[in-house]
Amino acid sequence: MSNGGSNQPRPTRNQQREAAREKARELREAQKKKERRNKFFLIGGVTVAVVLVIGLVIGVVVQNTKPAGPGPANMASNGILLTGVDGVVTPVETKALAADADPIPTEQDDSGTVANIVVYVDYLCPFCGDFENTNGDAIRKMVEQGAATLETHPLAILTNRSAGTQYSLRAANAAACVADNSPETFLDFNALLFANQPEEGSTGLTNDELKGFVKEAGGASSINECIDSKQFHGWVNNATERALTQPVPNSDLESIKGTPTVLVNGKQYVGSLTDPAEFQSFVLQATGEAFSESTSTPSPTPTPTPAS
Questions:
Q1: C-beta of residue 122 within 8 angstroms of C-beta of residue 200
Q2: Cα–Cα distance measured from residue 202 to residue 164, given in angstroms and rounded to the nearest whole number
Q3: How far apart are CA 137 and CA 29, in angstroms?
């Protein structure tokens, strides 16, 4: 009589051991396949990551080493020249120079009645900030009255002093963008950068903050794209290299040694950066010397007396 059990004979001990070994072998094979899959995905993932990193690095390098395009308009001398009359400051308009073209030195007023003020600045340089905050308003008034001209050269010497954000380069690029698109607002924008100057070693102002100061100065909205696209980064780097390695026009300086470098009628100001009276005295002296030179006439040559 059947009790519902299996009619198959029970496996022997050897058969059980063989079955166990086969099961173990299957588990080992499955584990090896799993490890091979994981290794494949790991290598594939690492490869994709490496490719992405390489692409990012190449993109950054290309962006920062791309050939310089044409320079900004109204900065043919590598600086923007501002003149004034009847209380109105007016930029001297010049065409944009082709990439790598030599700058055209400014023809200064040699009448001896005008102070030709030339300033080389880095917008992260604290000493430049001291000079601007001390003398900026007085210089503006002299320009407005026609007693002086002002030529400003933005440089990027301290590009590596802003925690990796390249603030000096970005700020100088923004200044070039303003000169190119809205030169009549340059003096106000320049003043805003120094009034809100970040500390050396900080991250500096963001591009959005720079664009905010462009708007506050009354600049055109097209300047925003110029800032974001780094349009004049290459030009700023070239202009900075020229300033540091080539003779300074309209002076006896072999090159710029640091910022601020301030010239009045070709003479370098080396006095206090925080004493407005000292700078005013220097301007009067330099202008007076130029006036004396422009109005002096050679002494008449004595007429020889004929021999008797």
A1: no
A2: 9
A3: 83
Tokens describing residue 22:
């086969």
Let me know the angle formed at the C-alpha of 18 by 15 and 23, rounded to the nearest 5 degrees. 125
Distance CA 70, CA 97 (A): 6
| Nearest residue to 235 (alpha-carbon basis) of 89, 123, 68 | 68
In the predicted structure, residue 283 carries a pLDDT above the cut 70: yes
- Listed in sequence order, the residues at least 6 apart from 57 whose beta carbon sits closer than 8 Å to its beta carbon are none
Which one, of 91, 95, 104, lies nearest residue 70 by Cα?
95
Chain segment 198-233, per-residue pLDDT in tens: 999 999 999 999 999 999 999 999 999 999 999 999
The predicted-structure confidence for 119-158, as pLDDT tens digits, reads as follows 999 999 999 999 999 999 999 999 999 999 999 999 999 9
148-155 and 115-122: which strand pairing? Answer: parallel
> Residue 48, CB half-sphere, CA atoms under 13 Å: how many?
5
Among candidate residues 214, 259, 218, 267, the one with its CA nearest the CA of residue 240 = 259
